[in-house]
Amino acid sequence: MPIRQLSETMINQIAAGEVIERPASVVKELVENALDAGASRVEIVTSGGGLNLIRVTDDGFGIPEPELALAIARHCTSKLVEDINDIRSLGFRGEALPSIGSVSRLSIRSRTASGDSAAEIGIEGGRVLPVRPAASNRGTTVEVRDLFFATPARLKFMKGERAESSATSDVVKRIAIAFPSVRFTLAGTDRSTLELPATDDSPEGSLRRVAQVMGAEFPDNSIPIDAMREGVHLTGHVSIPSFTRANALQQYAYVNGRPVRDKLIAGAIRGAFADVLPRDRHAVTVLFLSLDPAIVDVNVHPAKADVRFRDPGLVRGLIVGAIRQALADAGIRSATTGAAGMMAAFRPGAASYGHGGPANGHLSYDAAYRASGSTGFDPSRSPQRPLDMQFEGADFVRARNGDFDEPDQAAFDAGSLASADARASQDMPAETLLGAVLGAARAQVHENYIVAQTSDSLIIVDQHAAHERLVYEALKNALHSRPVPSQMLLLPEIIDLPEEDAERLAMHSETLARFGLGIERFGPGAVAVRETPSMLGETNVQQLVRDLADEIADNDTVETLKERLDKIAATMACHGSVRSGRLLKAEEMNALLRQMEATPGSGTCNHGRPTYIELKLADIERLFGRR
Question: Of 279, 429, 546, 555, which sits most exposed with the smallest number of CB within 10 A?
């Protein structure tokens, strides 16, 4: 078959297959065009999940009548002049409108501020209709009907109306967070109206917009982020460790105002929260990266959802370091949802909480977790569930065999808490203790829970979980403050690798040596491992090195080895902490509370479970009808 030039319509339909995946993709492109046009108000209306109708109206600059024909022509844009490395707008390719018009019935009606009247142009399945006069206010209205009518095969891949509507709503919310000064409205026959009133571009206004999208409880359970390194500025908010979600859908990331779903950023967030969250829980984040457009490439994905950084290690290190520093500086905080779960447990009719209903007044951990607004966590299947617990009905119960029960683990006790801290707490005036974050210890109940009082709240602390975190942090500090002890292999382990992986490992050999892994080149396409971290004991050296090579190729880091060492430290901390069932003296309980206040991340244990719950005095008074 001879080589021939494809028709313009077919070229646009091919482009539409990459750019326009579903109705939500159309909404994204049209809303971005409105924002690039300086709109302060954007209204979106859909029908049939967006397959029947999508209408986007804005009050932006508008399109002059002579330029309407260019607006729907391929690779015609006002946002890019000469330098592809200097992209400061959301759109820049000039592909969206002609691609949409090639697979739907598209009309554009626009009027500029200086225009006496509006003009309209249309496309039906790639066939351009003539420009004609129209009536309209200042701005642009783009209407898309019968999406994919020109490519019926694509319709077979669409999901149900509810799923398409949900995807459209998610797109609008993601864009709206980056533009708090713009009012967004999303309406249609298939959903209730979503209204996001304009705030302002100040940090407070941005946080109010985030609360509109993510819920009013997020600001009270978040920590601000503000860090800069080598020209890259990171701002935003991240949730405290005890405020989590079952999936990563509420992790929002922006690069120069552009919403992205970048795996490097997602991986950095996971790394930053690695030792404070359970494996099946996810932090809630809103992060904004601002940097020179010349050092980030946004032209690597048809939908512009991915980006490529010139120095990915710098960006990843900034995100991980900034989040960990913010968590450390924030001190100890409990999620407000924990008190909500406790309040729900005490209310009459809360029969779903506990194994025996409200009669026995027992609240299971699983029920409290669900009551706090966290869904999707099943403690019976969690890899972090206690070894000495079994699951019956709605509750954890002690294992009957006695092999792992707490009294049998007394040999692992770390002994009394630091006597200096105990004496310091004992010598503190009562007023000083009540003014502390965790207050003064008043009692120990069920030989595991410390009840403390502050000036305006009641605190319940899980003594084992709390001390486990304290021991873990101490072990980590000792582990990373000096080179990790290593053990020499009797025979070096020779590992064959692709030449690129071997070279990457050799470049990071000094860093690996600090973690106890002695590695060197062994001819082309191979490395020799002569030492391994003594903490790892018997380990699969081949798999460890290959995992490190893969991580260095993806992120230019050696976090895999560090995470393995931290995991061993967490296991040692679990066995070396104060056990459940152990009676503590008053001074020991107060010393534990003071150490928690001074230790970053002590609001959760090594497995991500909360170490304490705070119930405000006002909430207690409401339970008794005093308010």
Answer: 429
Cβ atoms 285, 273 nearer than 8 A:
no
Tens digits of residue pLDDT in 348-400: 555 443 433 333 333 333 443 344 444 344 444 444 444 444 444 434 343 43
pLDDT value of position 173: 94
CATH superfamily name and code, 413-627 = MutL, C-terminal domain, regulatory subdomain (3.30.1370.100)
3-state secondary structure (DSSP) of residue 469: helix
Our measurement of the distance from residue 460's CA atom to the centroid of its chain's CA atoms, rounded to an integer in Å, reads 28
What class, spelled out in words, does domain 8-196 have in CATH?
alpha beta
Burial per residue of 499-521, b for 16 or more beta-carbon CB atoms within 10 angstroms, e otherwise: eebbbbbeebeeebbebbbbbee
Q: Which class would CATH give 215-329?
A: alpha beta
Percentage, residues of the chain above pLDDT 90? 28
The better pLDDT of the pair 349, 33 is held by 33
Q: Dump pLDDT digits (tens) for 424-457.
A: 445 566 667 777 888 899 999 988 899 999 988 8
Residue type for 615, please? L
All structural domains of the chain with their residue ranges? 8-196, 215-329, 332-404, 413-627
**What's this model's pTM, rounded to 2 decimal places?**
0.69
Classify 128 as helix, strand or coil: strand
State the Cα torsion 24-27-33-39 to the nearest 10°: -130
Question: Which letter, b or e, does each residue of 600-610 get, where b requires 16 or more Cβ atoms within 10 Å of its Cβ?
Answer: bbbbbbbbbbb
What pairing do the DSSP bridges indicate for beta strands 53-58 and 41-47? antiparallel
Bridge-based pairing of strands 526-533 and 518-521 is antiparallel
- The H-assigned helical ranges of 330-462 are 336-346, 365-371, 419-427, 430-434
pLDDT value of position 428: 63
Beta bridge partners of 290: 233
Interacting residues of 494 by C-beta distance below 8 A, sequence separation 6+? 522, 526, 527, 528
142 Cβ contact partners less than 8 Å away, ≥ 6 residues apart? 30, 33, 55, 56, 97, 106, 107, 108, 109
Give the other-Cβ count within 10 Å of 188's Cβ: 22
Looking at residue 315, its pLDDT comes to 93
Beta bridge partners of 613: 460
Q: Which residues contact 277 (CB under 8 A, 6 or more apart)?
A: 241, 244, 283, 604, 608
